[in-house]
Amino acid sequence: MSKLVLKNVARRYGEVEAVADFSLEMxxxxxxxxxxxxxxxxxxxxxxxxxxxxxxxGAIELDGEVISSxxxxxxxxxxxxxxxxxSYAIWPNMxxxxxxxxxxxxRKVPKAEAERRIDKILDITQMRALKDRYxxxxxxxxxxxxxxxxxxxxxxxxxxxxEPLSNLDANLREEMxxxxxxxxDEFKITTVYVTHDQSEAMVTSDRIVVMxxxxxEQIDAPHILYGKPRSRFVAGFIGRTNxxxxxxxxxxxxxxxxxxxTAKPSANGVEAEVVDxxxxxxxxxxxxxxxxxxxxxxxSTLPTSVFEVGQRVWLxxxxxAMVRVDQ
Amino acid sequence: xxxxxxxxKRGWDPTWLLWGAIIAVLLFLxxxxxxxxxxxxxxxxxxxxxxxxxxxxxxxxxxxxQALINSLQLGAAAAVLAGIFAIPLAWxxxxxxxxxxxxxxxxxxATFITxxxxxxxxxxxxxxxxxxxLNKAFVxxxxxxxxxxxxxxxxxxVFVIALYSFPYIxxxxxxxxxxxxxxxxxxxxxxxxxxxxxMRRVTLPxxxxxxxxxxxxxxxxxxxxxxxxxxIAIPARFNVVTTQLFQFFANPVRxxxxxxxxxxxxxxxxxxxxxxxxxxxxxxxxxxxxKGGERRPIDLGRGRWLMFGYAMLVASMxxxxxxxxxxxxxxxxxxxxxxxxxxxxxxxFHFILFEHATAAHSVFNALLFGAAAATAAVIIxxxxxxxxxxxxIPYAEVLGFLCVAPFVIPGVVLAIGFYAAYAPPPxxxxxxxxxxxxxxxxRFLPIGYVNSSAALRSLNPEMEEAVRxxxxxxxxxxxxxxxxxxxxxxxxxxxxxxxxxxxELSSAIFLYGPNTKVxxxxxxxxxxxxxxxxxxxxxxxxQALTLPMLWIGQRAMGRDFMxxxxxx
Lengths: 327, 568
Description:
The complex is a heterodimer. By secondary structure, chain A is an alpha+beta fold.
């Protein structure tokens, strides 16, 4: 049986359809991201799962039991879920230990056991030393760890994360992605993760739901999304790509799937001119224009492949790397 | 796929009971007295039938109509004079390098917490014909036969009212001026405008909507005031609306006529408050960029001492002279005998506190009713602003509107509504402590609401949502997170209600009974009896009791907590 099921869920605000016809089934222990640009309906979906708002139509089921439908909603406090908020929502009037222990206290866990579980989770999140501090004394990353510890210690049925890393700086963000995945691997909590950052979603998730304008574009594992994007939107949103028109169809071709050299390749060679280039350390980013074509292509290469602007080069395109996408 | 899903469990939230109770309370406090006020103005006192006779009686005499005109003239004149006091001070304090700016702010605060009736009494001591200290000084200095000052006159009343309502304009103006960034002024300076021209053409126009808003509030304050006109206008043999209303309430009580007579006062207030909101909310014209640019004080050169002199002149009139002579009277055997050691005595304080039959009790009543009203108002308005900001029920804004609605109801009019609604059976609350507490609560709901909703808006809703996903209900969230985080703000709101509630007169004078006299009514009675020594002692006791409250408020909310826009 699926752990969490969303059946044709929709949410309307007057005329505006924030989420439309959203269906998803998650198995126990799965980590799924809702990925999309701001305003795509991902946070609305998450808040419906949490029980903060009812769906306008459709239903949400947890372990086979309807918990949300237009006719009624099990309130958030009865759902046995946890949520990590964009602002962390660490209560400044409580210490780290009190914050983490709050859910256990509400669940009337005996004091000794509660202390043991608090200490364990603080060890795992490396926050044990700061147990008696107040949140105002903590850095953003530490607050983030408190939020994680507080959400996980209650062993929720579902863990919900709403853009949890968007307030951290770039280095910390990268570190925390792996941290979140590590905690998931350790506790196997069924997790829904909302983000607009594709690399965050790819690092953490078993499957990614790509959303656009309230609708699902594609649901797949990260490598399939990247390798076989079904729509132009997905191809453009997950990584960078070139769009080509061939035989009346639209194709996506990743910049690193194009070979570039001074020598003419044996097959599928196209002659082109380097129009622009940028060195990004890990790779070169070339803008090239096949001779006689109006539109340019992006090509990325190893840092060792150096070409000058204006230079004539040969491109090698593997037809298998071209993926047909919907308009 | 779970096709045989079990039926949905609906969550019953016990907090709905609380919301229901709050709605009922608002209907009781705001809607019912207001409706009863309107209805009773059309009700025949004899048979209870529909009639226009009350309106005929209320406007049938020329002197009744004249009192209305007097009120409007009084309001306009007082607002203009208060503007003359307040605007230069506000500009100097918030934008210039005038010396003693902090001190001037303190003086404005001292003025603000001086009840209008205390100020009026002090000025009776200072500028009463013949015996007033200023007249005596004038006679002494010039050898003339009589001094020129007579507080018992229309200009005298305008002066006293303006003197104790100018802080409203000060608060509005300085709040606006503090938002005009120096960069806007620099832009004018670079284009060749001098300090003076910049102020006239750039700074003041930007603050103009706020200044107009302050003038309107001042006008409304002046026409709604009861105490100062009763102490000054009645001896001067003219009436204003509020004193005329008081006479309709003298035996026999003609509440229906009073209700009819109160309608223009209510109408003018509603209209002007709408105008004021319109002016101050207009965007674009008020190009105030918030806390964007830095603000440097403007160098006034030698003019800063001139400015300081002006501030001290206003301060002398509103604070220094009044308090010096109130103290003189309070510690004197007889105030007319002047400053001498053999005239010094504690007997007035002793009499007030230990011998007078009701004076000490009236202080106790004021504190008790004020505390009860402040507590009730904070609880109600906090509940309502919670419902409104969290959108817990549809059309919650209506509740918010009901909380701020009493702002447009002058105290005397509110009292008439309460009298009409709750004095008759079945409740028969007239003369009870309850009716005073209820009336005070209603009167100060707007202050409570503005402060509670500002506090709640500053709190991220995710703080509560985090409680709820972890299994706590709304009560848990309120108790464990919201209340602890907002306790300072709520304490501030409580004090902002408690302080004015302890000195409230204009609604109390219509509703008190033999056992529920409050200190303001006591002071008013003593002024009618001419017991200025006792009165001064009592007024000073009231002021002294305010000081610790002020101190607590400043500790909790910052030094200027009473001089913010949310305080009025």
